[in-house]
Amino acid sequence: MTDTLTLVVILLATAVFAVVVFRRLHLPPILAYLGAGVLAGPGGFGWVGDTSGMRHLAEFGIVFLLFSLGLEFSIPRLLALRRIVFGAGPLQLLLTAVPVATVLWLVGLSPAVALIGGGAFALSSTAIVIRDLIARGAVNTGYGRATTGVLLFQDLAAVIMLVLLPVLADPSAGDPLIAASATLGKAVLLFAGIYVIGKWVLPRALEETGRARSDEVFVMTALLLALLAAWVTHALGLSMALGAFLAGMMLGESHFRHQIEADIRPFRDLLLGLFFMGVGMLISPALFARYWHWILIGALLLMVCKLVLIAGLLRVLGERKETALRTGILLAQGGEFGFVLVALAVTHDLITNEQAGVLVSITVLTMAATPALLEHSGTLTRRLLRQWEQEPDTPSVDEDTRGHVLLCGYGRVGQNLMRYLHRFHHQAVAIDTDLVRIQEASQAGERILFGDATRKEILERAGIHRASLLVVTFDDPRQAERILHTAHQLCPDLRVLVRTRDDAHLDDLLGAGAAEVVPEVLEASLMLVAHALMMLDTPFGKVLAMLRQSRRERYKLLRGYYHGESLPTADSAGNPYRLLHAVTVSGQAACIGKRLDQLDLKEDKVEVQSLRREDRTLDYPDGDTVLRDGDILILYGPLDAVEAAEEQLLGG
């Protein structure tokens, strides 16, 4: 018992440490669990010598993974993307798996290992890619839909592979084709049975469970459903994962889906963590040292081939060049279902630990490169298109266009601004680097140029010398500063309006020459204040005067706020976090009787935003104000500086 507890503690400690480190490096947690497995396994420190027991426990992680996949697997969504799912999906799988399997067979591996490797490498990482698309709000973009469609078919194919692999591994099953056909036939019948149960029986059972008003009962019911479906399919000689997937798919059509998913997530994540640690134990540092060149070459070839293949297939199906190429970049890696397939093959003695270690190592390398590819997929796509297609020179704005507004960036904000400029009969020209957006806007008759707005030649082609106003519409202060520098080199008198998210760079941008800076967060607060005052019957003239004064004072009254329990150390720009802090001047304070200008608080970058004395409040008090007992000072500045100023005020 003590040895088991020690092992569990070591594994959990290793996993926690690895996940924290990998999060700091912006790498997915799957790689952290694999790394923890490498450290704990026979090839690392050897804390786990026999991995068979852990594999049996980790199989339940696969059950819950497939159950969760079933919950998210929507048949209407599948049909909506059927052109991609049943067009590019199967072709991508076959055209990746067959050549890879052929290469593995030619280098001397057995046909079974070659087929498993081909199937594993043909799959991409649903967990990493879909999570990134959701985080970026890109699921409904062209490349988002294409990526989702290919991944849907891959997930479906992975389920079928997991079902067929144990059958093909059983020598007593007879002819493999007959055995596989019989297994698929059982799966279809099972699907029909679970569909009937899931459509009419399970929802009523869950409703009865819900009436119990007990979270524990509902959680136990969700676990029971996943494990019961897995037990039924296992009893019929099929994969446990298939039953879990089918049960999840049926429950995915009910209104209990989100609650069930939330309830089983802790169990799924814990067991999946153990599973991926078990896969990591197949990797040996000594193995990597022996075959590192083949592993690196294999990872590079796999990513390049999948990228080209997927992009080419999507172009054949009529997708735009940028959509096809960006989808190929997103899906170039191997995936977590490849690990599942390899681990299952090891369990059935189809491949050795050494062979599995090489396959897993190649997949891990491709997944390690994925976060960087996801982050820069748009930029990489544009560069590749410019290089391969030799984009023609950006056309110039004609000489007759004068007094126009030049928009740097044509996203949501830029497009809204363009509409209102047109309504008030102002000409406008936009600059953007998104090829799809440019094509769409140009077809709609908008005047938009392709190019980088920080470059002199692009601004000149957009007619900056004849423009009346330049507006930076995207939220990138560093890019905005470069545009300001370039614009003022070309046209020193041109007024520039800059949009930012908050006030982190407000002073820097104004110092760089911006005529006005509009921080979204502060403007939203100002509009909310104005609407609230209007609803309280404050005269419109006073509200308008308040708005004008606030903007004239560069949002002084809105800058900074009181922190709560969780205090960030830096703002969105990475600068020291600035906050408001109230300091009460008590009878023992060293500052009593002194003027504010004697305290030299501004040298510490601390500003006295207001002084509260009895029932009065003085905003931005003068330097000759003498502090009294009972005064409350509202300080604004970086955290360290505010703390030092408070110490000076109270202790001297």
TrEMBL record:
GO terms for cellular component: plasma membrane. InterPro entries: Cation/H_exchanger_TM, Na+/solute_symporter_sf, NAD(P)-bd_dom_sf, RCK_C, RCK_C_sf, RCK_N. Keywords: Antiport, Ion transport, Membrane, Potassium, Potassium transport, Transmembrane, Transmembrane helix, Transport. It is found in: Membrane. This is Cation:proton antiporter. Residues 567-651 form the RCK C-terminal domain. It comes from the Bacteria. Coiled coil: none annotated. It comes from Alloalcanivorax marinus. Residues 402-519 form the RCK N-terminal domain. PANTHER family: K(+) EFFLUX ANTIPORTER 3, CHLOROPLASTIC (PTHR46157). Signal peptide: none annotated. SUPFAM superfamilies: NAD(P)-binding Rossmann-fold domains, TrkA C-terminal domain-like. The chain crosses the membrane at residues 6-23, 30-48, 54-73, 85-107, 113-134, 146-165, 177-197, 217-234, 270-288, 294-317.
